Amino acid sequence: MTNTEPLGRRERKKAATRKTISDVATRLFLERGFDDVSIREVADAADVSPTTVFAHFPQKEALVFDEDDEQRDRLVSAVRDRPAGSTINRAIHDFYAAELRMNVDEHGDEVTRTFMRFLNETPALRDYAAKMWLRHEDALSDAIADELGVPEPTAEIRVYARFILQMQLLVNENDDPFATLEAGFVILENGWAPVESGFAPSPKH
User: Under DSSP, is residue 110 helix (H, G, I), strand (E, B) or coil?
Assistant: First the structure.
């Protein structure tokens, strides 16, 4: 029989299944610990087969991060679609701040803190999150280069992109993410010298 189901509907079903699996897995991990929950248990709780779980998530760590591609696209869009007159630095700052506020608004401050603490205290997830986020370096560098009118990312653009991505990891690890975010972008805007001059004693001879 020919499958005439619209592609949009099939994609929505796949996305809904993926989200359900991720939500169920995250709940189980928070309740019992990442290492004490098996893929079979996630599949049973989500009412799918283990094969379906692996079709959506190639490894166990990925179950917690169901929006990797979407986050990359939103990050790139923040650069490309920034308001007229807005710098790239300001656009990324506003994007990070909006993502933080969205998480707090959707889940509440305490749940968000509990989830971030869970990530930071689970080595496998912390390492996976870092590798996953840093994979966006090429996409971010290319977008910045394009916006600046250069044919390919320069060394300065790649350094900046790496700093920006690493800073987001630090923000997520901190108990006061908004303060960390602001501190990071102040340094990116103004450099380190003003910070050092505000604290440092006389230069060494």
Answer: helix
